[in-house]
Amino acid sequence: MNTHVHADHITGTGLIKDMVPGVKSVISKASHSKADLLIEAGDKICLGSLFLEVRATPGHTLGCVTYVTGDGLDQPYPRMAFTGDTLLIRGCGRTDFQGGSSSQLYQSVHSQIFTLPKDTLVYPAHDYKGFTVSTVGEEMLYNPRLTKDEETFKSIMENLNLPYPKMIDVAVPANMVCGLQDRAAKA
Ligand SMILES: N[C@@H](CCC(=O)N[C@@H](CSS)C(=O)NCC(=O)O)C(=O)O
Known about the structure:
Helix content: 25-40%
Low-confidence stretches: 182-187
CATH superfamily of the domain at 39-162: Ribonuclease Z/Hydroxyacylglutathione hydrolase-like
Largest sheet: 6 strands, mixed
GO cellular component, one term: mitochondrion
Strand order of the largest sheet: 3-4-5-6-9-10
Bound molecules: the ligand N[C@@H](CCC(=O)N[C@@H](CSS)C(=O)NCC(=O)O)C(=O)O
Subcellular location: Mitochondrion
Enzyme class: oxidoreductase
CATH topology of the domain at 39-162: Metallo-beta-lactamase, Chain A
Structural class: alpha+beta
Order of helices and strands: HEEEEEEEEHEEHHHH
Strand content: 15-25%
Oligomer: single chain
Distance between the termini: 22 Å
Number of strands: 10
CATH architecture of the domain at 39-162: 4-Layer Sandwich
GO molecular function: metal ion binding; sulfur dioxygenase activity
CATH class of the domain at 39-162: Alpha Beta
């Protein structure tokens, strides 16, 4: 289940599909990408007794989603949010790439993630600070970017000065894109 279409996320999909026959890939419709299952906000993806709800969280890319586990009433585990590159621990995804928007990211986090119960565990896709898990409540209190008002947030994002990844403008080869589809069907 991909949260967005950046190469550092989707590239593993083809390998997983080769290693585990029958695996179906998932990505949002809004990412304008290819996968076995195209999902959108409000969809529920069932995995046995667990389900993951899809929340649209654009901003890092146009098609970013966050996957949130069900309400857990009959589940022994806490609620979890898999935020991809939208909300990182004490940070967030950069918004200076194709389809990025700091305003959208701010709205996404505040309306779709910070409205979850405070004890929801937050599992992002990257961590640059030595953490592996946070909670919604912690990020609402300590996230140095998203605790600010929207204008301050936008200014922070405009001045991150992160290095521009060397490969970002390289076209994704067709065989890599096909990794998101059912390879058996293409053979
Ligand atoms: N080179 C730096 C930053 C790597 C980077 O740009 N990470 C992205 C996610 S992968 S597109 C990002 O959104 N970063 C946000 C941030 O605040 O760093 C490194 O490797 O540390």
